[in-house]
Amino acid sequence: MNPSLARRWMGTGVLIALLLLAPLYLSQNAYRMSVVTGAFFYAILASSWVLLAGIAGQFSFAHMAMMGIGAYTSGLLGRDLGMSPLVGIVLGTLLAGVIGLLIGFLCLRLRRAYLALFTIAFSEILRLILLTEFQYTGGANGLRLAPLYRGITPAVGYYITLGLLLGTMSLMYWLTSSRFGLFMRAMREDQDAAAAMGVNVVRYKIMIFVFTSMIVGLAGATFYHQVGILTPNTMELLQMSLVIAMAVIGGIESLLGAAVGALVSRIGLEMLREINILGFHFELGAWRYAAFGLILMITLRFAQNGLIYPILNRLFPQQVRKPLAKSETSGGGPS
Amino acid sequence: MLVALELYALFAIMSPGNLCVTNAGYVANQINNGLTIGFIYALMAVGLTLIYSVQGIVSFAHGQFYMLGGYVSYYLLQIFVGLNPVVAVPVAGLATMLAGLAFDRLFLRPMQLGRIERAGEYAILVTFAFGFFLEYTVLAAVGPFSQKTPPFLEAGSLNLGPLLLIPNRLVSAAIGVVLIVALLYFLNRTWLGKALRAVSMDKQAAAVVGVNPLTMNTLAFGIGTMLAGMSGAALIPIFTWVPWVGSTAATRSYVIIVLGGLGSVRGALFGGLIIGLVEALGAGCYPDPSKGAAYKTAFGLIIFAGMLLLRPTGLFGRRE
């Protein structure tokens, strides 16, 4: 086996083994456990945003809104109609897909800025509506969601979220390496050229928008059944900004980079909540986010591949593909 | 117009007891309120559309420049107690213009020079990131409290027939009108303004006749952010101010510039007045008044979706 490929597989194996064994250590402290589980959730959000924005080139700010649609649908159906969380999650995922379809239909025929403008307006207004209709949604006090099943333990929640992360990541990796992924990259590089080559640009764009909407809808519904309470603040632009920052810092064109970026940032932000240096106690509060914004700007300006992706790439170099034509003409000999 | 009338007739049949149906004076007052505030909405949106017309990018930090303008005014009036808030408007404009110019030089100029791949995507993200940075820096510095400056004018309301005029708001609208007139004069009558418009029409042709597009890009961004800051300073004596006040205001500006047509100054002016009217009438006439105020931005989204469906180039947009 190619040595760099073996190294990649080994790296992946060690990482997954570590993640599987982590609850043995984490379960001593419920807070730590919830932080890491939450970090997995953000890793799903950041990596699916990378698929949408970084790979397909669609800059949507409604990612958290789609997540919220999934979670609110499932929560409301469970509370008002007594549906089981499982059915709720399926319906929530579908509804996120339907809304994604409508927004995609509305915006993706037009130039890029319209999608960004519309989705930002859409998520702000959805949040306002959820706040205003408090007698249905619980407003700022939040909506209570039933647990996935009675007597679920945090460790099970950890494994469910981890499983969701690994599942969606594999799905997205499969998608980007398929023919569909090739179309996506082609459309991002040059929409007109892709259309001229026979790619139905608008249809593929809408499909990818619907697909990522459903992923985050699913993640949101599943995750908030574990958290148990959902407020419109989860759909605030702050949360969207954090997801974007994680994706950019991780590497805007790398699914794995974004996921690792999300894990690191999420855990880092929690650890920096308050710090003690030389006996001085600091409550960092909003300064953490300000610093995060600054890091985001600097990363965008000076490190377009992100901060984490280059490290991953150094540790686990991608196998260098031999140019196809050359290896064929040279008769398959070593080049 | 006809559609609006039909909608109104339908509304009157659906909800006969509503104040908007039974009381003409109430409607007149709502229209008055809408137009008054509409001038400031227009002022802010003109800044955004001006940046778009020259640079070809939408600044997603526009709402935060507006927020910053309000806070500059607030702290100026904290230091110089007794100063009229009118004085703070140019100061806030200057401060946000400097911030905008610095941002443009550091983060947008490299993009215009072609040093950054995928310029369009970079522009969306970097302006958004700057807005995020500004909002949380201000939040960390001033805290999550609502603040307000003294009014422009202490005088009580004037009754003009059924119309109730609030002097404080009228001053704010007057500031909007004066600044819009000054801006139109600048754009249409001065050399610099003509150069700006030339760059927005055709960069290469402008360069041929000796206009440096890079300078004009920076100038447009500076003027755009200045207008956002001035709008903030013009509204803080009327509304209370919190660090996250920018996102709603920015959302409104996005609706206005899409309604008027991206890059059209005239469109942003009319769009601002239209959105002001729609919000005032929508909030005033919504069957449940306690929710009307919250929903007024939501009416904007309906207009936004309608424009995307029917006429994406906007009312005055250029065809592309």
Any chance you could write out the topology, listing elements then pairs?
The complex is a heterodimer of chains A (335) and B (320).
Chain A: H1 3-26, H2 30-55, H3 63-81, H4 85-107, H5 112-132, H6 134-137, E1 143-144, H7 154-177, H8 179-189, H9 191-196, H10 201-227, E2 229-230, H11 237-250, H12 255-271, E3 274-277, E4 280-283, H13 286-302, H14 308-315, H15 324-329
Antiparallel strand pairs in A: 1-2, 3-4
Chain B: H1 2-14, H2 19-22, H3 24-55, H4 62-79, H5 85-112, H6 119-142, E1 158-160, E2 163-165, H7 167-189, H8 191-201, H9 203-208, H10 213-235, H11 245-260, H12 265-285, H13 289-310
Helix pairs in contact in B: 3-7, 3-10, 3-11, 3-12, 4-5, 4-6, 4-10, 4-11, 5-6, 5-10, 7-8, 8-10, 11-12, 11-13, 12-13
Counting helices, strands and paired strands, the structural category of chain A is mainly alpha
Sheet with the most strands: spatial strand order of chain A: 1-2
Largest sheet of chain B: 2 strands, antiparallel
Helices and strands of chain B, in order, run as: HHHHHHEEHHHHHHH
* Subunit arrangement of the protein: heterodimer
Low-confidence stretches of chain A: 321-335
Strand residue content of chain A: under 5%
Strand content of chain B: under 5%
Order of helices and strands of chain A: HHHHHHEHHHHEHHEEHHH
Q: State the end-to-end CA separation of chain B.
A: 27 Å
User: Widest sheet of chain B: strand order?
Assistant: 1-2
Overall pLDDT level of chain B: 87
**3D shape of chain A:** globular
Strand count of chain B: 2
Major sheet of chain A: 2 strands, antiparallel
Low-pLDDT windows of residues of chain B: none
Shape of chain B: globular
